[in-house]
Specification:
There is one protein chain. This protein is mainly alpha-helical. Among the domains are: 54 residues; 52 residues. The chain is 58% helix and 0% strand. It is built from 7 helices and no strands. Helix 2 packs across helix 3 and helix 4 packs antiparallel against helix 5. The longest helix is centred in the last third of the chain and has 28 residues. The protein is rod-shaped and about 120 Å long.
Length: 165
């Protein structure tokens, strides 16, 4: 269970009638005993023509970056959010709120489409030739180090005491 309250079709129909008579979400919420947020969402759905078809599964819409930027800039210029949601056919007010927050934080570039799926794992950016060269250099360096250690060991006097005859 997802915790949402499922309202009857009659309640939705009555809300639709009230919106058709010109009442706003606040009055409809009070009249039907709904939370104001629900009534506001229903008002947006009514204006978009899908309040009474709430049981239908709608496909997720993909909005272009240009539409997102235009809608947000129009909102920031002073147009009411309700008018923008209706004009641009935005499916949910919360989605538009997210766009505004991203725009304010990251600018228009933040509303660009994001790549889908997992990021490919980078196995190695090094070319095969570069890898072979690097390993050969490491090998040569280790050989030089071993030779130096052997030379240094040979130069040190032996720690054993020599017997005198």
């Amino acid at each position: 269970m997802d915790g949402r309250i499922n309202y009857s079709e009659e309640t939705r129909m009555e809300a639709s009638r009230q919106f058709a008579l010109g009442y706003g979400y606040f009055v409809v919420a009070k009249y039907l005993g709904l939370p104001r947020g629900t009534a506001r969402t229903w008002q947006d759905a009514y204006h978009q023509g899908h309040l009474l078809h709430s049981g239908d599964v709608r496909e997720n819409r993909i909005y272009s970056q240009q539409l997102k930027v235009a809608a947000v800039e129009k909102f920031l210029a002073g147009t009411p959010k309700t008018d923008i949601v209706l004009e641009f056919g935005i499916s949910a007010r919360s989605l538009f709120d997210r766009w505004v927050a991203i725009y304010r934080k990251e600018g228009p570039g933040g509303l660009a489409p994001k790549p889908k799926g997992r990021k490919p794992q980078v196995v190695g950016t090094e070319s095969l030739e570069a890898k072979v060269y690097r390993l050969e250099m490491e090998n040569a360096l280790l050989k030089k180090f071993q030779a130096l250690m052997a030379k240094e060991k040979a130069a040190q006097p032996s720690k054993r005491k020599r017997s005198r005859h």
